[in-house]
Amino acid sequence: MRFRGGALGVFETAKVSPRRPCDFVVEVNGSRGTLRFDYSRLNELWYGDADEPGELYGMRRIRAEHQSHPQTEGWWSIGQGIGYGASFVNQAADLLAQWPDGEWTPDLETGLQVQAVCEAMERAAAQRRWVNVAEIADGTRGAASASNTD
Amino acid sequence: MSGAPEWQSAEPEVGIGIIGYGMMGKAHSYGYTLAPHIRALGCRPRLRVISGRHRGAVESAARKYGVQRAVTDWREVVASPDVDIIDICTPPGTHAEIVEAAAQAGKAIVCEKPLASDYDGARCAADAVRRAGVRNAICFNYRKLPALALMNQLIDEGRIGQPRLWRATWLSDEFLDPEIPFDWRFRRSQGASTIADLGAHLVDLAGWMVGDVESVSAQSQTFVTERTDPANGGSAKTRSTTTTPRPL
Questions:
Q1: Potential cystine with A145: which of A19, A126, B1, B140 (Cβ 3.0-4.6 Å)?
Q2: Inter-chain contact B147–A32, Cβ cutoff 8 Å?
Q3: Can you give the pLDDT at residue B4?
Q4: How many CB pairs under 8 A join A and B?
């Protein structure tokens, strides 16, 4: 993937990986640091700061359930764990706290933008070429391929 | 005399109707049930009705999830006057039609990801809520995990400088066993591709943390191309098109 801001990205999804139940890892490298999340340790976030002195070289393990962290309001004291079910509780709480007039985010327009990127990937795979995401919304250059539908 | 205590009845009730009682129906009803335990919301969610095609199963789910009524036609949920929010937890290929009906009924809409099984369906859904001017939300629940929310916040704060490289994997063995019989998950028009199903979470996180995606390249392969179809007496094989096949 190429981002508008100039960053590059790559990801892999599969449902045929033996003994990998929901192994979900996200890493971002910036000009001055790295962040890494591993779902199998979902209350932790790894952070490396390139501006730290050399003797501290490495990544620190942030315990991402401190009361100062986002999405921890109302949950257990640090160290007890905030998990998958809690993500749906937080989601419902964020929606209901904005009822009836506050902003809901992300909205279906965000869902549409995500779908455009996914469909661009399907088209890119079927046609073995780079695909601009804008071409999905424009409806140009046809569907992914005849073999890509039921 | 009302059964509700005075402190509780002072808060307005918000009627929730959940369409679909599977894993996501369970997760979303759990979310509404627990939300008042963790936060002062200013309203009281009430699980009014849940729908599913199989009466026994949806009634059992309603009992377990604490929903007042169970119905077998999702249109009854949309038409229910005591429902303010329609929460869609059905397979992706059904989302657009339900969103359109709920938007026409003037209901607020919460839709599980992916928005649809393809871009055309997603476009119909997004257009419907815009035309109707109804409140709407898509569920990317992983944004609500503290560690990922913190990751996004630290990037926004400039803690890693300018993002340059983003990478992710999502590996599961859900479809590994070739003996798993064919069902809606394997039909692209209902379950969507693996790119759209699992990839939607990763694409959303990428967009949230790093910004809009401009262009992509990709490769994909369906490794188990035939599965037994119980709808054909258990003997027929049906081509799986869960992921995009490699072009010939």
A1: A126
A2: no
A3: 64
A4: 408
CB distance from A33 to chain B under 8 Å? yes
- DSSP one-letter string for B53-87: SSHHHHHHHHHHHT-SEEES-HHHHHH-TT--EEE
Calpha distance B87→A54 (Å, rounded): 51
Give DSSP secondary structure letters for A41-95.
GTTEEEEEETTS-GGG-S-EEEETT-TTSTT-TTSPPTTS---HHHHHHHHHHHH
Largest CA distance in chain B: 72
Q: Locate all alpha helices (DSSP H) within chain B, ordered by sequence.
A: 6-9, 23-38, 55-65, 74-79, 92-104, 119-132, 146-156, 188-191, 194-197, 199-210
Residues 208-227 of B with CB under 8 A from A: 208-220, 223-224
Q: In angstroms, how far is CA A22 from the centroid of its own chain?
A: 14
Contact A115 B115 (CB under 8 A): yes
The tokens describing B151, both together, are: 């990751």
A-chain residue closest to B147, CA distance: A64
pLDDT tens figures, B108-152: 999 999 999 999 999 999 999 999 999 999 999 999 999 999 999
- Contact indicator for A83, A90 with CB cutoff of 8 Å: no
Q: Kindly state whether B160 is in contact with chain A, defined as any CB-CB distance less than 8 angstroms.
A: yes
pTM for the structure as a whole: 0.92
Integer distance in angstroms from the first to the last C-alpha of chain A?
27
Q: Which of A133, A47, A24, A6 is nearest to B141 (CA)?
A: A24
